[in-house]
Fold:
Amino acid sequence: MTDHLDRLNAALTVLAGHGHIKQRLMKAYEEHLVDIDEDELPVVMKQSFADLRRLMHQVTPLKGESPICASVRKMSVVEASQCAAQVVGLYGEISRSTDDAQTRPPTGKDDSARVPPFLVKSV
Structure:
């Protein structure tokens, strides 16, 4: 999941950069998000990412053009901004999922193996 967090963070960096929103969206998606498999994402993110993927592949490309380029080309500036906002939302979701996983108290037998030996009370 850390890899997905890093990819979304890199996409946000591109989205926050210079240039037209359509150019930034296309670059962020093509360079950082295109090969994410939504089945590897936390459940709360799967549908949102699938929706974003659908939007980014909805137009049949012209000769020599990628589906992403064609889809973004056909978007209005408002639609491109909404897609960028979806990326921000996805980053927020994965950040919360990562934080929750790190702060969750240990449970089960596997967690007992993580207790340092000097803390285990001998009988």
